[in-house]
Design goal:
By secondary structure, the chain is of the alpha+beta class. The chain has three helices and four strands; from the N terminus they run H-E-E-E-E-H-H. It has one domain.
Length: 94
């Protein structure tokens, strides 16, 4: 399966990982109230784990206490990426 078919046409722009914790940046096109379109970025966040019963890899948004430092790192990296690439103030325009 190719990356494009796994995610549809909307591929992740960037992904930051620290162990099992990741923050993924997505580029999305939206329509403003005035009818014009704009590009915005969203960030999804998850923790990967292997299910004991099925032996399959799964994702969750729940964190354990020991996951918090890694979560801070990947979210700070995502924020830094967006700010350095000029995406920090776009939400204020919409």
């Amino acid at each position: 399966m190719t990356e494009a078919s796994k995610f549809g046409e909307n591929l992740p722009e960037m992904k930051f990982k620290a162990g099992a914790i990741s923050a993924t940046i997505w580029r999305n096109n939206i329509k403003r109230k005035d009818g014009t379109s704009a590009e915005v970025h969203t960030v999804s966040f998850d923790r990967r784990y292997k299910d004991k019963d099925s032996d399959e890899w799964k994702s969750t948004r729940s964190l354990r206490a020991m996951d918090l430092p890694k979560a801070v790192v990947v979210l700070n990296k995502a924020y830094e990426y967006l700010i350095l690439n000029g995406q920090g103030d776009l939400a204020a325009e919409i």
